[in-house]
Input
Amino acid sequence: MGGRRCGAGIVLTGPVADAGCAIASGSQAHLRRSSTGRGSAGGTRASSLASIAFLALPALLLTACPLGPLAGGRLRGDVQRGEVRDWSFVSDVEQCQLETNPADPHSVNTWCAGEGSALYVPTSMIYGPLSPSERDWVRNVLADPRVRVRVDGVVYERTATRVEAEDEYAAARSLLERKYELDPDALDPAREIWIYRMRPGSGLP
Output
């Protein structure tokens, strides 16, 4: 019987896996808003955060979805290898899953933003290591740029290319900051942020 792998090698079937992953994503979204100072203030924020964490914990233990530093394995879903002409639908998706290292798949939850035919995935913008190269998934991409990105259950086989052109980088970063309601002036200036464009094709069998 088929199932859904949320991460850490655990495969589940039915709505339990979907519910667990949804709760995990919602919890991380709440953490992101709190860390950037958005949302309600003081005790209300702390109380809400504690409630979310309490409600999410059972589902996380059951599904072990990729969440922050907790990585998963090979992503499952309907595979799409061709070009996507309009990624605007990603604006309604809080997180996507990124799989790297085809020889020994490693998947994580990550932010993403799309515009036209371009899909972008950044390195850590507000928390985690200040240097992108300290992230396992980034080191994997540097060694082998073949990746798979899952959005709403569809797995897109792609090649990750670091955005280095200044104009495209500025546009992609602005797109991500608007989507995730980040104040550019509030970001840590010591943090180096790389942005990868997910191009069609990966060469995977």
Confidence is low (pLDDT under 50) at residues 1-20, 22-28, 57-64.
